Amino acid sequence: MAGSVHDSQLYNRLFPAGEAARLFTDSAEVRAMLLVEGALAKAQGALGLIPGESADFIHRASLEIPLDPGGLATSAAQNGVPVPGLVAAFRKAMEAPEHAQYLHWGATSQDIMDSAQMLRLRQLLALCETGLQEVLQTLATQAEAHADLPMAGRTYGQFATPVSFGSHVAAWGWPLLDLLEDLPALRRNALWVSLSGAAGTSAEFTGKGPELRAALANGLGLGDPERSWHADRGPVLRIAAWLTRLAQVLGKMGEDLVLMAQSSAGEVRLGAAGGSSTMPQKQNPVQPSVLIALARQVIGLEATLKGAGMPRQERDGAAWFTEWMTLPQLCLSACAALETARDLVPGLQPQAQTMAAVFADSLGLLHAEALSFRLTETLPRPEAQAAVKSLAQECVATGTPLADLAARAFPDTDLDGLFDPSRQMGEAPATARAFAAKVARL
């Protein structure tokens, strides 16, 4: 098995990261670092920190000269970071030492790598935003179409009270809406440029550090944190937390769908299902299982990443290396969950007859709570609850429908509509429609 399912020719379609996969390659990282070096030179030239002619040459070269990532491997192994090798290779490739000497002027490796990483994470969040909007639109369509379709609600895995399939779908969607609404603040508070020199003091920029950092931020389209964040991994952790929440929400949907599609329930049919190598009858919930597995992986990776969020002193190699090993996998797996959901949700088919059979087979016990509240019209609440509990026990023992027992025990009580699931869903239909309406306003 490959070291990562996302890099595997065998498994990458089972765990599809989509366009996000191209953001986490060696070539993409090198290209992003070159863009940062070029933008830095341009900003320094404008501020008079390096000659303007050299700044223009370096900036132009950063857009035109490719570097082979493999050629930087030996230097990266020796130095612990790829930037010294990149700078040396780029200076050589420019073939203009009079200009190349001003490349990487005053910056440190972490400035270049963190800024380059933020360029790629900005693209990642844009892809997530598009994917989220698509999933939400599809969920909203399902919620609206099935707002009035009764199904058994379950708590602790047991039948509770009636809900609607539309409200159940909306429950998957509301947290995704929250995530979408959180994106503007996340971008402001996390997509930051990094530029503060060797130990985070900007001493190398001769008093123009803040001005230069702001210019670089503007040139790259990133935020200016107005400080060094070399040893504050908050921006990275905030993005990772958002992605983890995304995977977790989709994982919950996967958990629900595995239960709803299992043989003993059959309340939902999946548009695509997997087969067994030996059992012809099997229709395995592959995509929901993928969502669950990805969520579990992302949650674990975030825990590791949080452990790396306590770097020692002004820079900590071990913490930084840990970040490199975990963040790309976390990003790709969260995006794979979103890609899987985009493909899964449109094919969901609720089975109305199966859902209705649950109410019939439960002998009306899903309406026990409603009965207890109806009886409070003539009985104190504790007495009403005790009476219904006794009737429920008789219902289970004798197989007599609860409606019949209630009519016998309380002949003068109006039980009209009490045992009709379509009239006992409370705010479930309205909740489903409210979700659909909010998505429509996006």
TrEMBL record:
Domain named Adenylosuccinate lyase C-terminal: residues: 363-436
For this protein, the record's InterPro entries field holds: AdenyloSucc_lyase_C, Fumarate_lyase_CS, Fumarate_lyase_fam, Fumarate_lyase_N, L-Aspartase-like
Q: Per the record's keyword annotation, is Isomerase included, yes or no? A: yes
Key words, A-Z:
Isomerase
- Enzyme nomenclature, EC number: 5.5.1.2
Task: State the Gene3D superfamilies in the record.
Answer: Fumarase/aspartase (C-terminal domain), Fumarase/aspartase (Central domain)
One example of the protein's molecular function in GO is: 3-carboxy-cis,cis-muconate cycloisomerase activity
Listed PROSITE patterns: FUMARATE_LYASES (PS00163)
Uppermost EC category: isomerase
Tell whether Isomerase is among the UniProt keywords: yes
**Transmembrane domains' residue ranges:** none
The record's family statement is: Belongs to the class-II fumarase/aspartase family.
Name used for this protein in its record: 3-carboxy-cis,cis-muconate cycloisomerase
Q: What is the name of the gene encoding this protein? A: pcaB
